[in-house]
Amino acid sequence: MEWLTKATQADRPFGSWADDLADAFVQLEPRKISDAPFCGAISKADLAPIHISRVTATSHTVARQPAHIAKGEGDLYFLNLQLEGLSCSVQRGHEQICGPGDVAVVNTTEPFEIVNLRDFNLLCFAVPRGLLPNHFSDRPRFRLSATEMGWALARTASGYADLCIGSGAVPLVPDVGEHLLDLLTHVDRFVADKPPARVQTSVQLSMMLDYVDRHFTEADFNASSLARKFGCSLRYVHKLFSSTGRSVGEHVNDRRILASARDLLNPGCRGMTIAQIAFAAGFSDISYFNRLFKRCHGLSPRDFRNRQSSKT
User: Fold this and answer.
1) What is the C-alpha separation between 134 and 137, in angstroms, rounded?
2) Whole-structure pTM value
3) How far, in Å, CA of 44 to CA of 46, rounded?
């Protein structure tokens, strides 16, 4: 089973996403955390006694409200294995941040909120609460990424999920649902109390990238801004970003070019000059903006705007 977001509208910024979430999981309320257009997809496999779903989407928040719970639907644990991105789960007043390789546990019979700070990819294992040990609700996060055995378990679970979701209704592995349930039941044996350095750096990088997304329009924003914000050296910031294959400046310019291109196409910005749009995106040098924009889009900002206007 698959769900893809249908076209969004002004009064429904998530399109069909709320309905898709209800069909695939339980009733949840999506909320915006950025002005970027939303898109998302869910692929699901039913593997008695559990369900597996792969969720990919742009950054947003989902909340489980008391009104949803009052309807009596769902008596499940969601075990969310983070594959890409960074999430923050809040339930019973406890805030848990998970990076790739970590598992967040939420109880659908109590209110919760999950904030996906960046575009993300995760596997959701929906397990009837009676099939998991009671102590799972007392430890809402399992850092599988903290140990080699934990990473191995994460890869195994992900591999099973890929096989089952890709094969349609009939699993390729007999009793795979039971096998996965057995693995998940013992997930606490594969974790360590303190994450290794590679997990810490992964989370720090995700937090810095999120900060870039929220502050790139500031004209003086650069690597030094990140170093000051996160209390680390400039050299450390450059080292973190080297793992992405792009510098801090390249990440910032990508976001600025994307924002300016969106404004050039926005009918509500037709009264703005190209220079005003460039400044609003964070550029301070119009000549540099023009060169960078043409390198990215193959057209000058003016030609880009005129060509798109002629199509409407």
Assistant:
1) 6
2) 0.63
3) 7
